[in-house]
Amino acid sequence: MANASPWGNLSLPAGALFGTDGIRGKAGDLLTAPLALDLGYWAGLVLTQGNTADRPVIILGRDSRTSGTMLGSAIASGFTASGVDVWDLGMVPTPVVSTLTHLSGAIGGVMISASHNPPVDNGIKFFGPDGGKLAPALQQEIEAALRGGMTAQGPNHWGEHLQKPELVEQYFQALTKPLTQTSPQPLKGLKVVLDLAYGAATSTAAPVFTKLGAEIVCLHGEADGDRINVNCGSTHLDQLREAVKTSGAVAGFAFDGDADRVLAVDAQGRTVDGDYILYFWGKSLMAAGQLPENTIVSTVMSNLGFEKAWTGLGGKLIRSAVGDQYVQADMNSTGAMLGGEQSGHILCPHYAVSGDGLMTALHVALLIQQSGGSLAEMVDSSFQTYPQVLRNVRVEDRTLRLNWKDCAPLQVAIAKAEAEMGDRGRILVRASGTEPLMRVMVEAETMDLVETWTSYLVEVVEKHFI
């Protein structure tokens, strides 16, 4: 399908461009310079409707992927062609774009990143002027314009593409100010390992931890777009586990490619995922009277062990659909001040306008410091997880994948598994919103149950979707 580009028609896929986290795909395939150029132009026209600023501004950032410069330059050209100034931060974590969009009065922000995806992929995600994800209605309006639903028009003036790396200092100040109220170095003497995944965290994490007094060991600490997320970072924890054990650190933190999420490991090599982080941070906020109605928002993926432990403390757990935008929506509607996902994407409006892996890691490190012990001791005194397995099945056919609920044999298989397990477990099957994957999750009282029904459901998915 072609669009009505000011520079000639551009071929677009028939399905929706925007997924749960912006537009994501293989660089050079779906994500090309012409698409980014047109996207910037139409987004500029949509986002400036009704805006009275003489020089409307978009905040732009990217992770370390080699395709990021190409896409960033192209989308910046589109914005400037629509009369919008682009303040380019260079390579920064996604939360820096979000925070500075909120602080600067910009009409929006754009991050060029595919998060935890492999190096060949990239993505374009938009933020609104409040620093949160751009409203779905505006995303749809931009896509409609891209597909010919708006008339091209010349601006009153051309925008400028300006390099603004100095603005990142404002992010550092917003990040560290709440942590240094009683001491300039609240993490003094705390030894941690940081896995920076060759990604955006390489520009921020080590200096901040060091400034706050921590002793750090860095893994994959240089920006490398050809190796971002490859056998490292939050999706590959083995090297971090080994480094924590051999270095004598009390904890390790692994970021994803754009550093909006983080996972931790303790000195015993155990993964400390978002469920544990929500539990630890939730207890602290509850004790401080900063957790309205003692409520945490998590997702349908969160472990039953976490839920039982949290409600046992007198807390309330609300489960949202998978995706930080759904967690955010439920937080907004309920007034909750803490939420997140198992993947380590944590939202805490007390300290940030979006999920921020560095912010989360710093606060967890502070909780460890305040405990006077170690992360392993915190895990030991928290909760026991139910066995849970998540299997991914690659399904390239996007239409088939997104309409998985129409597959009768799979629905029959899910019903059979649920009936057999009863109240001893639960099942979640869904299509990924960011990758060509079907996800099958089974959680139960015993690993035998988990493995039996995971294998059964995966076989059904492979038979009918591949």
Description:
The chain has three domains: 23-171, Alpha-D-Glucose-1,6-Bisphosphate, Chain A, domain 3, CATH 3.40.120.10; 187-380, Alpha-D-Glucose-1,6-Bisphosphate, Chain A, domain 3, CATH 3.40.120.10; 388-465, TATA-Binding Protein, CATH 3.30.310. It has helices at 33-47, 68-81, 94-104, 136-149, 168-176, 205-211, 238-247, 274-287, 304-312, 324-334, 357-371, 375-380, 398-402, 408-421, 447-465, and strands at 23-26, 57-62, 85-91, 108-112, 121-127, 161-163, 191-195, 215-219, 251-255, 262-266, 271-272, 295-299, 316-320, 339-340, 346-347, 388-394, 425-431, 437-444. α1 (33-47) runs parallel beside α2, α8 packs across α11 and α14 runs antiparallel to α15 (447-465). By secondary structure, it is an alpha/beta fold. The chain starts with 22 loop residues before the first strand and ends with a helix. The strands form five sheets. It has a six-stranded mixed beta sheet with strand order 1-5-4-2-3-6, with helices on both faces. Strands 8-7-9-10-11 form a five-stranded mixed beta sheet, sandwiched between helices. The chain has a three-stranded antiparallel beta sheet with strand order 16-18-17, covered by helices on one side. The chain has 15 helices and 18 strands. The model has no long low-confidence stretch (mean pLDDT 94).
